[in-house]
Amino acid sequence: MRKPIYTLILLFTIALCTQAQEQVPENMSYAGQNARNNIPATTPQPLTNAMGMRMVAESYYKYDALNSVFAFIDSSEYTYSGAHTGDAVNTPRYDTRMVYKPFYNTPTIMKATHYSATFDQYDNRSSLTINQWNWIDHTWDNDTLISGDLDRNNRPRTDTVYAWNKDLGIYFPSLAWSYGWFNNGLLAAYASYLHFDTGWERLNNVAYLYYYDQQQNLIEWNLFVSADRYGANDKHTYAYNSNNQLLRDSSFDWEKTLVSNSGRWVRRNLVYYTYNGSGFCSEQLVCKWQKYKVMYDTIGRYDYSYDFNNDLSETIFYAYKGNGVFEEENRYQYTNNAYHQRTSTSTQTWNGSTWEITAKDIWRYYYYAPYFPTGIAQQPQASCIKLYPNPAGNILYVDGAVQACYITNVQGRVVMQVTDNSEHKSIDVSALPAGNYVFTVSTGNITEHHKFTILR
C-alpha cells in the first residue's frame, strides 16, 4: 500500500498523554510560602468572571538534601497583548518574558534573561529578541534574535537565528530552518541550515520528513543528517485505533552496513498506549529492543490518573523488575485551577517502602491573572460565526459564511488551513494534539479570533 505523505509537528505524539494538574502532599506545602517573593510585583490571582486566565509568572525549586529545603532555581514573569494566552502546558504567547535567578549562590534574586516578541498582521510571532543581564555593568547585553517569514498562505517559510557579535556590534546569521507544506496545510518537511563565512551551507544540519494516513494521522517521521550526506538517522512509526488515538510508537535507528551507502533500520524502543473510558491515556508501557535476544524487554510503565475535571492529577513511573513485577520509582503530582490550568508540579521518589523527597525532586508553581481580550468596558460585538463544541473532540463545527479561516496553535503557528467556505461546515481536528488553539476567520472587513480547546 502506498503511504500518503502528509505532515504535522513532531510533538504530536507526546501531547496525547500530557495535560496536567495534581494533589499537593502536605509535607511539601511549606515550600511555596515564599514563591511570590521571588517574582517581583507578581501575586497569584483567584478565580474571576474574566474570559480566561493566563500565566503571568512561574517559579522553580529543586530540593536541597543537605539543608532539607527547596532551593530557588529561577522564576519568570510574562506580559501579553490582546487575546494572547499561555499556561504551564501550552507555551505562553507573551510579549515579554523576564527571567530571574539567584546571584550565584546567594539569596539575592537578580534579572537574568529578557525575551521580547513581536507579531505580524496575522498574529503570528514574527521575531523574538533575547537579551542577557550584565551583572557587572547592570545593563542588557544583546544575545540572540530569531526572525521568521511566511508564505502567501500565512504559513512559516523560514525561521532564522541571529547571534550578536559584541566586538562588531551587529547580529550575524547562525542557523535557519526552512519549512515545506502540503496544500491541506500540514507540514511536509523542514530542514536546518548553518551559516558560515561563505554563506548558508548544508553541513552538519538535519532534515525531517513526515508521513500521514488518509485521516491525517501522523504515521511516520524520518530524520536525516547531512553529515552522512542526508543519510537516514532516526525513525518513528505510529499506529492508531478506530478513534484515531495513538496505540503504538515504534522507534528505529539507522545501522550502516559494510556496503557503501547501504544500511538498515534496527529496532530501538516500543511504546504502547492504553485509554480509559473517557478517552484519556491511562497507561504507557515502554519496551526496549534487545539485539542479542532478538526481542523486546519491558522497561517500565507510566500510569496516569485524572481528577473529576478530567485534568491529569498524577503520573507514576513503575520500573519493571521481571516476572511480571513492577515497582514504583518516580511520582509526579499536579494541581490545577477552575480553568483547567496547572498551578503546581511536584515530584517524589520511591525508597522501597514509601514516597520521599530526594535531591532529584522539584517543585514548580504557576500563577495566573484574568484577561479581557475585548477590554473591560468594551462590549463584545456579535460574532459572524458559531464555533462548537468547545471543548472539541475530533470534530469542530462552524456555522457562518466566511471568506478565509485557519487554525493556529498557542505559539501562533498555523497548523491547519480550512478551505471549506460553506455556511455549515465540520472540520476534522483529530490530527491535532489536545490543547488550546485559535480559530481565525475573515468575513468582509472583519477578522475574528476564537479560542477553543481540544480534549480527548
User: Over the alpha carbons, how many angstroms does the gyration radius reach?
Assistant: 24 Å
Q: In CATH terms, what is the fold-level topology of the largest domain?
A: Lipocalin
Mean pLDDT value: 80
Shape summary = globular
Q: What would CATH call the class of the largest domain? A: Mainly Beta
The amount of beta strand, in percent, is: over 45%
Strand-pairing-aware structural class = mainly beta
Give me the CATH architecture of the largest domain, please: Beta Barrel
H/E series: HEEEEEEEEEEEEEEEEEEEEEEEEEEEEE
Number of distinct helices: 1
**Fraction of residues in helices?**
under 10%
Low-confidence stretches: 1-50, 374-382
Number of extended strands: 29
The biggest sheet amounts to: 20 strands, antiparallel, barrel
Number of domains: 2
| Cα separation of the termini | 30 Å
Would you mind describing this structure in some detail?
This protein has 456 residues and is mainly beta. The chain folds into 2 domains: 12-272 and 331-371, Lipocalin; 386-454, Sandwich (Immunoglobulin-like). The protein contains 1 helix and 29 strands. The chain has a 20-stranded antiparallel β-barrel. A 4-stranded antiparallel beta sheet has the order 26-25-28-29, with no helix packed on it. Strands 23-24-27 form a 3-stranded antiparallel beta sheet, with no helix packed on it. A hairpin with a 4-residue loop joins strand 7 and strand 8 (170-181). It is globular, with a radius of gyration of 24 Å. The relative contact order is 0.16.
